[in-house]
User: Which sequence fits this backbone?
């Protein structure tokens, strides 16, 4: 009888022989049992500004306790954190930090939320889930920073303990996913739809890489998807590529490309479109889609000014025209 | 006429002993999980990441 196990977590559905790991290098077949071997062992533990995730309409200006283990189920040639995302668990020194300890440290550091980030929280699913549940019980919120390559069943379950997600939509092109990331497009679109449906606060990120996914038709298709299938209130971040990992032959994304993409988004009716990884001036701040008033002024990851009015019920509105502004503000 | 052996080499006593010694090193059963390198976390040093995301 075969002692192989099949992982059902992500669309790759790896069939894993005894003693071996799946494509993510984290989920192993140990004695016939599928085991996420990095459980409780993050390799990165930090306190970041929420804007760094980047989440702009979720508890703006607050610190977020951020953890990651090794591993990823995508293999993007331009990965900025490849030293840990593409490493095997034994290759990077790790900490011993069970879920309850993560929550305790987050509270000790004055954080209202915990982010599962830097690599891919989906591959350390059980750690993400258990920590999220413990955080919820302690009154903290949970943030996923993910590429969204997960099957619907486990993702819906994770959504029950997730408050916000920044989901990386790499391009509206299956070929781009296959050639640049070792994945496919359709499951990511499903993840985005499910997250919104499940009531998770969602922001979408699109890293624009010169010549690979900067075709205006791809940008227009992405904007259309966000507006029509997720809603015009979902913030969209266009961020700049810089040469890294296996993709050092391409130049950084020109700021003009990012600003042009933002303009496409705004003209299509998206309410909040931002530029990131570059100094974007006004494109880094939140503006009222009704009257154009400044709501939250940012430079980089820093909030400089907050004019947004937040009611006792936590709802946000423009201080000038009173228009409701979507987000999680308190 | 060839001076070499006509058939397989006979298993000598030394080879047999070496094989016995090597047996525990052979991946015959289940392999254990990876041995993680656990290091202490300096809680006071936790700060903003230089990592993306």
Assistant:
């Amino acid at each position: 009888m075969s002692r192989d196990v099949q992982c059902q977590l992500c669309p790759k559905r790896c069939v894993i022989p005894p003693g071996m790991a799946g494509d993510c290098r984290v989920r192993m077949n140990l004695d016939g049992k599928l085991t996420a071997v990095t459980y409780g062992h993050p390799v990165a533990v930090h306190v970041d500004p929420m804007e760094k995730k980047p989440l702009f309409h979720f508890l703006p200006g607050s610190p977020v306790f951020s953890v990651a283990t090794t591993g990823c189920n995508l293999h993007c040639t331009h990965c900025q954190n490849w030293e840990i995302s593409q490493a095997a668990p034994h290759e990077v020194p790790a900490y011993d930090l069970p879920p309850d300890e993560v929550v305790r440290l987050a509270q000790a550091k004055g954080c209202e939320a915990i982010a599962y980030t830097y690599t891919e929280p989906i591959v350390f699913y059980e750690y993400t889930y258990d920590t999220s549940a413990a955080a919820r019980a302690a009154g903290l919120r949970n943030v996923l920073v993910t590429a969204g390559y997960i099957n619907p069943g486990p993702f819906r379950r994770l959504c029950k303990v997730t408050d916000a997600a920044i989901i990386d939509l790499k391009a509206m092109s299956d070929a781009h996913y296959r050639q640049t990331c070792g994945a496919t497009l359709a499951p990511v679109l499903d993840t985005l739809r499910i997250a919104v449906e499940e009531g998770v606060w969602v922001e979408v990120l699109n890293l624009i890489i010169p010549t690979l996914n900067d075709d205006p038709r791809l940008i227009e298709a992405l904007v259309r998807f966000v507006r029509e299938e997720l809603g015009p209130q979902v913030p969209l971040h266009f961020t700049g590529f810089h040469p890294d990992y296996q993709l050092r032959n391409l130049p950084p994304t020109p700021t003009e490309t990012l600003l042009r993409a933002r303009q496409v988004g705004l003209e299509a009716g998206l309410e909040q479109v931002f530029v990131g990884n570059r100094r974007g001036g006004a494109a880094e701040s939140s503006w009222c889609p009704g009257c154009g008033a400044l709501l939250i002024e940012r430079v980089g990851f820093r909030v400089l000014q907050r004019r947004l009015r937040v009611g006792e019920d936590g709802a946000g509105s423009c201080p000038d025209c009173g228009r409701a502004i979507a987000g999680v503000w308190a | 006429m060839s001076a070499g052996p006509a058939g397989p080499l006979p298993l000598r006593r030394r080879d047999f002993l070496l094989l016995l010694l090597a047996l525990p090193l052979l991946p015959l059963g289940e392999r254990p999980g990876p041995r993680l390198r656990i290091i202490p976390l300096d809680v006071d040093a936790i700060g903003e990441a230089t990592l993306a995301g």
Summary: DSSP finds eight helices and 18 strands in chain A. The first strand of chain A starts at residue 5 and ends at 6.
